[in-house]
Amino acid sequence: MPAVSKGDGMRGLAVFISDIRNCKSKEAEIKRINKELANIRSKFKGDKALDGYSKKKYVCKLLFIFLLGHDIDFGHMEAVNLLSSNKYTEKQIGYLFISVLVNSNSDLIRLINNAIKNDLSSRNPVSMNLALHCIANVGSKEMAEAFAAEIPRILVAGNAPKSAALCLLRLNRTSPDLIPMGEWTARVVHLLNDQHLGVVTAAVSLITTLAQKSPDDFKTSISLAVARLSRIVTSAAIDLQDYTYYFVAAPWLSVKLLRLLQCYPPPEDAGLRSRLTECLVTILNKAQEPPKSKKVQHSNAKNAVLFEAIALIIHHDSEPTLLVRACNQLGQFLQHRETNLRYLALESMCTLASSEFSHEAVKTHIETVINALKTERDVSVRQRAVDLLYSMCDRSNAKQIVAEMLSYLENADYSIREEIVLKVAIQAEKYAVDYTWYVDTILNLIRVAGDYVSEEVWYRVIQIVINRDDVQGYAAKTVFETLQAPACHENLVKVGGYILGEFGNLIAGDSRSSPLVQFNLLHSKFHLCSVPTRALLLSAYIKFINLFPEVKPTIQEVLRSDSQLRNADVELQQRAVEYLRLSCIASTDILATVLEEMPPFPERESSILAKLKKKKGSSAKLPDIDETRRQVNGSTEHSANNGTHSALFLDNLAAFSVTMTTCAAFGCSK
C-alpha cells in the first residue's frame, strides 16, 4: 500500500491531540473534548459542503475521542461518504472508522456493503485490500451473507490473495455455515506454492481451519505442505532473509505448516513420509545446536517450531525412534529456568506417556517430575507434573507415584486437590494387585484430604469391598482401627458405618473389636456428624441388631431416645421410629431377610473415572453414576437426606411396612 505523504498530514488533528495531552485534569480533558465535539457537529451541519480533507480530519478526531473512552453518536454518515473517495488516505480513514465504530445492526450497513462491493469489483488492489480488511474486522453475519460467495472468487483470481484468505478465515470462524465449499477449495491449495511467503502463511491458516471441517477436500495440501516445510528447514537463513526472525527461518510459517499436517494421519506415500521424517529430524537437530543469539526472541522462535514438530510426532505416533528422541529432548526442558518451557515440556510428555513406543522413555524422568512437584513455585507447572505422574503410572511404579501424590496432597494448592484425590483413587484401583493396599490408600486419602473426597470416591471403595470377599475382613479391621483416632473426617465415618454395618461380624471375635465396642465407637461420632451421615449410622445400628443380638437392648435405647427428641430432623426421627418398631415386632427370620447382606454391585466403569473426565471437560459420553448412588443410598423414600442404605434393604423394608403397620394396629408388642 502507498505510504501517506507529508502533504496528507492533518495539522488540526495534531493540535487537538497535543491539547488533550497537556490537560492537567480529567475535567479539563472533558471540557476540551466537548468543545471539539461541538465544533465538529457544527461543521457537519453547516451549509457549506466539506471537502474530503476536512471530512477525513474531523472523522479522525471523532475516532481519537472514541478511543479515549467517550461515546460518539454522530459522524457515521460522513465516514461512509469517505468510502467513495478516490484518495487512499480518505478511503482508509473511512474504513477505519467503520471497522471500529459501526456495529452490525447499524442502519448504514446497506450503504457500507454497497461501497465495499464497488471496491471489491474495482481493479485497484489498494481499494480491494481496504474493503477486505473492513469485512474481516467487522466480521458480522450480514457481511458474511453479502460477500461469502464473492471472496473465494477474489482469492483464486490472485488479485489480493493474502487479504482474501485472511478475510475468508475470519468469516469462516464467525459464520462457518455461510462459506460455500466448491471448486475454489482445490485451487486455494496451490497457494502453498506461491513465491510470496506472506500469501503462503495466510493460505495455510485458512486451509488448516477448513481442513478440520472437511479434511478430504484438502488432502492434496499434505504433499505441498511437506515440500514447503522441507524448503524452509533445509535452506540457509540468507535464502529467506526477509522472513528470518532472529536467525530462525520463517518460524510462524513453519509452525502453521506443522499444525496443518496434524489434521491428517502420516502420509501413505513412502517418499513423502521419508521427506517429512527428514524435516522433523532436522528440526530436532537444530534445536540441539548452540544458540546463535542470546536474545529471548531467538529461543522463543526456535522452541516454538520444536514444540510444534514434537506435537506432530506425537500425533502420528508411528515412528518409535522419533518419539523416544522427542521425549529425551523434552526431558532437557524439565529443569529449564524458563517456567513456560517447563510447563510445555510436562504437557507434551503427558501425551507421549500414552504412546506404547515412548511410555518407557517417559518413565525414566519420574524422579525429575517428582522433584518438580515438590519444589516448583508455579501452581500451573505443579498441576502439569501431577498430570504427567498420572499418565506415566503403571503397575511397576503405581505404589511410588501414589505415595508421592498422597504426600504432596497434604500441602497441595486448594484449586487442584479434588483432581489429585480423583487421580489417586483411580490409580489405586486400576493398579491394585493387593486390594488391602487399595483399602489402606483410600482410607489414607480420606484422612489427608477428606474435604475433597467426593461421594464417588467413597461409593467406589464400598463397591469394591462388597464385591471382593477376600478384602472384607481386612477392610472392617482397618476402618475400625482408623475410626479410633480422636478426630475423624465425616467421609471416614460414612465408610466406617457402612463397612462395619455389613462386615463387622468378621472382626467381632476379637474382644478389642467386640460388637458393643464397635457400636460405641460409631456412636461416639454420631453427634459430630451431619444429618445424612447420622441417617447412615442409624442404618448401621439396625444392621448391628441383626448381626449381634446381644447389643439389641443398647441400640433400641438409642433409637428410642432419637425418636423422642424435640426439634429433631424429621428424616432422622422417622428413621429412628421405623427402625425401633422393626426391631421390636419382627421375628429373627424376617429381620434377617430384611437386613440381609448387600449383594454385589454390577461391574461398570468407575464412577470416579467418569467424574475426572467430566472435570477435564471430556466430550465423551460418560456413564451415569445415579444407579451407583441409588444402590448405596437406597430407594426414593429416603433419597433426600439418607445415608448409604442398600437398595435391597430398603425394598425389603418397604415391603415389610405393611406387616409392621398391621401389627401396630392390632397392638402387637415386643
In short, what is this structure?
This protein is mostly helical and 670 residues long. The chain has helices spanning 11-21, 26-45, 52-67, 76-82, 88-101, 109-121, 125-138, 141-147, 150-157, 161-174, 184-188, 197-213, 221-234, 251-261, 270-288, 296-316, 320-333, 339-352, 359-363, 366-375, 379-392, 398-409, 414-430, 435-449, 455-467, 469-482, 490-503, 515-526, 531-547, 552-563, 570-585, 588-594, 607-615, 626-633, 647-665, and strands at 244-245, 248-249. Helix 5 (88-101) packs parallel to helix 7 and helix 14 (251-261) packs parallel to helix 16 (296-316).
Can you walk me through this structure?
- The chain has 670 residues and is mainly alpha-helical.
- The chain is built from 35 helices and 2 strands.
- The protein has a two-stranded antiparallel sheet.
- Helix content is 68%, strand content 1%.
- The longest helix has 21 residues, at 296-316.
Assess the beta-strand content as a share of residues.
under 5%
Determine the mean pLDDT: 85
Helix content: 55-70%
Number of strands: 2
Q: How would you sum up the global shape?
A: elongated
Q: Regions with pLDDT < 50 over 5+ consecutive residues? A: 1-7, 618-670
Decide which structural class fits the backbone: mainly alpha
Q: What is the overall number of helices?
A: 35
Spatial sequence of strands, sheet with the most strands: 1-2
User: Gyration radius, to the nearest Å?
Assistant: 36 Å
What kind of sheet is the major sheet? 2 strands, antiparallel
Distance N terminus to C terminus? 101 Å
